[in-house]
Amino acid sequence: MKFKLILSGLLFLSAGTSFAQTTPEPAFETYGNKQSQLLHAAYEKRDAVTDKALVEEFVGRYNQLSTEDKRMYRGYITNSYYNLSCLYSLLNNKPEAFKYLDSAVAYGYMNYAHLQEDTDFENIKNEPKFKQISQSLRSVGDYPYILKKGEKYNAADNRKIPAFTYQSAKDPKLVALRKNFKLDSIAGKGDEASKAINLLHWVHNTVNHDGQHESGVKLINADEIIKVATAKKIGVSCGELATTLNECYLAMGWKSRKVYCFPKDSLKVDFDSHVINMVYLPSLKSWVWVDPTNNAYVTDENNKLQGIAQVRQRLIENKPLVLNTDANWNNRQKITKDFYLDSYMSKNLYMVYSPLKSEYDYETRANDKTITYVTLLPLDYFKQDPDKTENTNKDTNLTIVHYKTNNADWFWQAPGK
Q1: Of 141, 168, 199, which residue constitutes the final position of a domain?
Q2: Same domain, 276 and 240
């Protein structure tokens, strides 16, 4: 048993449906932290009666929350049930151990690897019921296993999808962005890779990330995001950070894209995702992975910068990957390769999508506007159809279009091809 609080997407929770998060209920967070301490104390004393009563009280309070707050605080309940199951296993009460392990899974527990390693379950690990739970959990919580099963695409998929486009650096708004923020000075005088990395560092250090609270940004462009974040002294979502870096790269004349990264989530219980960037560097003739939330980029064992497709394939094949040593969250918490790549992004690289047009202010929700995305799906994804969805807001006439493809070669092709 490792009793620790897991709030969904504490560091990385992405843009959701509108590139911002809802404001959680602070009173419940305070209560939840206190209740978690009491539960841990009961576990240490092997006091199942008190532990069970605390869990029931916890769940009762949780059930009074709004739908959005339930999503935010689900981790409290998942942990509570999981740790109560641990306690009953230690007490060799197998029926109760399985009952509460089932409850933990029902509330979204998906850490297959930890379940296998947890010594609290030594009393029940050889039971058929435990093996059944483990196997069902593996299909939703063993992320390297899931990613490997999702390896295959279809290069022959020729569904009619408009081409990705990239705004010219000569666009007046991008010219102003480059000038106003002195991007050339920030990029420095090194090679392309060092310039791209310097801009990554600058965005990361200029605007903090906040994966839990709504930023209040209405215009989804670099100028507005930086202005609001610095004026209010707040953090923004990973999607908003990715917008900022993307437009800086476009302003410098590089083709770049935002990439939304999602888990398979066949149970519809994992509301966490992440948004990063890829920038095409002509000198390298390749896309490069850049993540402004975590000040992160990735190389292979030969110090060669990797793109998103390359990182995904290397994770599947268990090939070496190296995370930059100064990767961090808000200059407060170091990000490790084991967590970030092997666990978190292994989960969220199952399927990805990008805006069809990479340009300034493209994703701002506005009247009479159409915003188009393209999703790359592995062949084993459980929902392949329809090929295209189109949803229009009756009040604003804003239309959101999503295309789907299984053709990874087309999705990751070099710009201009």
Answers
A1: 141
A2: yes
- For 340, the 3-state DSSP assignment is helix
Question: If you average pLDDT over every residue of the chain, what do you get?
Answer: 91
Distance of CA 276 to the CA centre of its chain: 9
**pLDDT average, residue stretch 385-404:** 96
Domain count, the chain: 2
Report d(CA 407, CA 340) in Å as an integer: 26
Q: Does residue 17 carry a pLDDT above 80?
A: no
In a domain, 16, yes or no: no
The candidate with the shortest Cα–Cα distance to 193, out of 250, 239, 254, 247, is 254
Paired tokens of 6 = 């897991």
* Inter-residue contact 107 to 74 (CB < 8 Å): yes
**Crossing angle, helix 222-232 and helix 238-251, to 10 degrees?**
130
Q: Are residues 299 and 197 in the same domain?
A: yes
Indicate if 184 and 304 belong to the same structural domain.
yes
11 in any annotated domain: no
153-183 residue pLDDT tens: 999 999 999 999 999 999 999 999 999 999 9
Q: What CA–CA distance (Å, rounded) separates 368 from 183?
A: 33
Q: Is residue 210 a contact partner of residue 396, using CB atoms and an 8 Å limit? A: no
Kindly state the percentage of the chain with pLDDT values over 70: 94
110 — pLDDT class (breaks 50, 70, 90)? confident
Per-residue pLDDT at 10 exceeds 90 = no
- Residue 334 is inside which H or E element, if any? strand 333-334
Q: How far is CA 315 from the centre of its chain?
A: 16
User: Is there a single domain that holds both residue 169 and residue 291?
Assistant: yes
CA Rg, the chain, in Å? 23
Same domain, 206 and 130: no
| Alpha-carbon distances of 40 from 2, 96, 319, 352, rounded to whole Å | 10, 18, 39, 38
Alpha-carbon distance of 402 to 81, in angstroms, equals 38
Cα gap 24→128, rounded to integer Å: 40
Question: Hey, what are 356's tokens?
Answer: 């069809």
Provide the pLDDT confidence category of residue 311 given band limits of 50, 70 and 90: very high
Structural domain range at position 121: 26-141
391 & 326 share domain: yes
pLDDT in tens, 199-214: 999 999 999 999 878 8
Exposure of 85 in the CB half-sphere (CA atoms within 13 A): 26
Domain boundary among 141, 165, 185: 141
